[in-house]
């Protein structure tokens, strides 16, 4: 069973729960985004408030190992995400944490106070085709790899792409001729 700090437990037992998201995107540049109204510093990193974090899924609990998806939408004002998408962000890690707000609407940012609600990978980035053109990042859990199919070509060129020092296929097709007899013998 997960244990919470006493401050977090007090907030969770109350009727009024407020929180802010802390989203980390590990692309070619690491982006730290928050839904809070000012920048927040957590675990030595500054999460930026005015990045245009537009929409995000609420945390979901799942009791089965499945391909649970999580969506983050960013109002990409400087076209940073659109440029990142061009250089392939599929498979890059995404983590989402929640900082609960105390009675003064200040986030609890101790390492024992921040809750991890999602850790996964970018599955399919896209740009919405509406008038605002917002980047949409669909993420999946690490369990999504359970249903992937990886093709592997076993040829000399295919092996050289995997391991350049491999010589297992170097002599297979070299100067080899076989005579095949067709029909009745």
Write a concise keyword list for the protein shown above:
185 residues; mainly beta; 7-stranded antiparallel β-sheet; two-stranded antiparallel ribbon; 3 helices; 12% helix
What fraction of the residues are assigned to beta strands by DSSP? 25-35%
Which overall shape is indicated by the principal axes computed on the Cα atoms?
elongated
Point out poorly predicted stretches. none
Total number of strands:
9
Output mean pLDDT: 78
Main beta sheet, described? 7 strands, antiparallel
Structural class: mainly beta
Radius of gyration: 24 Å
Strand/helix succession: HEEEEEEHEEEH
Total count of domains:
1
What is the terminal separation in angstroms? 73 Å
Number of alpha- plus pi-helical segments: 3
The main sheet orders its strands as 2-1-7-8-9-6-5
Helix content: 10-25%
Question: Explain this structure to me?
Answer:
- This protein is mainly beta.
- It has one domain (6-147).
- The chain has helices at 6-13, 80-86, 156-162; strands at 19-26, 30-34, 40-42, 45-47, 53-56, 69-74, 93-100, 115-127, 135-140.
- The strands form 2 sheets. The chain has a 7-stranded antiparallel β-sheet.
- A hairpin with a 7-residue loop joins strand 8 (115-127) and strand 9.
- The longest helix has 8 residues, at 6-13.
- The model has no long low-confidence stretch (mean pLDDT 78).
Set out the fold topology.
Elements: H1 6-13, E1 19-26, E2 30-34, E3 40-42, E4 45-47, E5 53-56, E6 69-74, H2 80-86, E7 93-100, E8 115-127, E9 135-140, H3 156-162
Antiparallel strand pairs: 1-2, 1-7, 3-4, 5-6, 6-9, 7-8, 8-9
